[in-house]
Specification:
With about 250 residues, the protein is α+β, with helices and mostly antiparallel strands. The protein is built from six helices and twelve strands. It has a five-stranded antiparallel beta sheet with strand order 1-2-3-12-11. A hairpin with a 2-residue loop joins strand 2 and strand 3. It holds the Pfam family RNA_pol_L. This is DNA-directed RNA polymerase RpoA/D/Rpb3-type domain-containing protein. One of its GO terms (biological process) is DNA-templated transcription.
Length: about 250
Amino acid sequence: MVREKVKVSTSTRTRQWKCVESRTDSKCLYYGRFILSPLMKGQVDTIGTAMRRALLRELEGTCITFAKSEKIPHEYSTIGPGYVTAQDIILPPSMETVDNTQHVANLTKPIDLCIGLQIERNRGYDTKMPKNFHDRSYPIDVVFMPIRNVNHSIHCYGNDNEKQEILFLEIWTNGSLTPKEALHEASHNLIALKSIFIDQSKLPPRIYNCLKKSNIHTLLDLLNNSREDLMKIEHFRIEDFKYSLNLLN
């Protein structure tokens, strides 16, 4: 585990992510803790919510979704002596297993075992519907998302007139990528918000007009404004702020 002390400075500087803790709990569980600063009061919730959404919903993962063999009459059959693990899977050169000790099958007698695997890359999760296994193809329920959990919290510093905040972001991954890689990919995806205009988000006309008059044209513009900034907009209410924030959920 790597840990670094957090030093807080009240000086103005460019916002950047910094890793303050990183560890590997197991082959299938990586942890990372990051900070982003300086942020104006109210921005942490907005950015934290957006990052959590990008990490949990936008990142893709690769999984085995089907298994097929001419030697297995049904999905729970015993197929030979010894143990078959993930290290016995022959993968394309561009792929590798996260945990090569993962159990695949128990063998009770010598046989020629050949199982074809279908590999897919996608988001979220996929629950296969039960099928008739006449073609000896067996679907596998999978969770594509590489992120196991995300938390964010706030640290405030400074006086009342110049109060600023630090965003703490904790990321747990399944080992297919590191938390740092996940953060980089999610941040890259958020940059795409520059091209998503507010009028594409189907906001109610009154909220849309309030934002447009304040030169908030894209979701990234919305992300860069704190709650206090938005509440200063004429005719913009707390309910409108919550509604707008839901665009990032």
